[in-house]
Amino acid sequence: MQDIITYQRDVLNGYRLILDPPPATKRKIAAARTRLDAFFPGTPIAEGSPFVYLASFFVYDTAEDAVIDQLNRIALGAMPFKIHLKGYGHLEEKEICIQIAETGWVSGVIDKIAQVRMPWTGERFNPLPRISLARNLLPWQFERIWPYFEKEPFQSRFVVNGMRLLKQAPGYRSWQILRHFLFENQLITD
Length: 190
Description:
190 residues; Cyclic Phosphodiesterase, Chain: A
């Protein structure tokens, strides 16, 4: 009888680490996107569910568990915190976003993630935490849209008690929720 040899391929997947707002805040952001689309049809509106992007990276399947373990340790040591979304802002006249009033807590989580040695490649950490509303705007689109949103109020407050890890397999456009890490404010020792 002949033995069948199977080969396992180590696939490089894409990952995103995000903070996910509660449903009430998502509805307010969806309403802002709807207004933007109604007043300015054809604007490149950010797709999918709104979130605060923390980091992105690539990891091989065989190293995925090691990354999950490290991210879990970071989350266990982090404390839940309040986010205050306040007003609209822009980034290099190419993106309109909803600003976070004080980014200290969010930046602290990003810094902790960046300091840990991980078996990942292509890592990028968000230097300006925010929620994107419209991206990749052309100059004429920005000039037309920004005066409307510049003085428009936006307020929302919520408590962040965890972060989510999203995974994108090669060849797919959609992102799958891989893990939800709760912030538990525990003392973690090596």
